[in-house]
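Morning!

This is the sequence you dropped in the shared folder:
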Amino acid sequence: MRSIFVDTPDGEKFSVAMIPYRSFCHILTPEDQSRVLVRMCDHLADNGRLIINIFDPKLDWILEDFSFPESPLRKHHEFTNPATGNRVVIWDTRKYDLGAQVIDEDRIFEEIDRDGVVIQRSYAKWSLRWTYRHEMEYLLRLSGFKIEALYGDFDRGPFHYGGEQVWIARKA
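The structure's back. Tokens below.
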């Protein structure tokens, strides 16, 4: 798989481009988001498609967190490590910039053995920008795309508040 951000010597165009796994959310300003979308459009063949996944923000969650002076550390998710059979618990805390639509998130991953002892702990920190549905539609159109579909999940279900935004757009 090649990156579209490296110019191909022969000016190759692509029929499909994807931004999966909410990775577009790591682009933290609308200006940078627009630049990325324009660049992708430039590298698509005529009638080429862009598929992009972002999350739809749950404003009630954001406002609940925002009401605390500091976001509390809370359990985010839990799963079983398939290699060890141990439980893995993910904790997180978030700080919001409502004006910039940015979440700064700290996560703690704890692997817990069968006796309840934490045997491994790791940390991750990242920032994400949430993009509202109509804002994303505008960015896509502004960047040279025609919207074909917006789905609310990966099974092509209808868009709904607080779910996924799975966009399919065609180079206009």
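Headline: The helical segments are 30-42, 59-66, 133-142.

More detail when I'm at my desk.
O.
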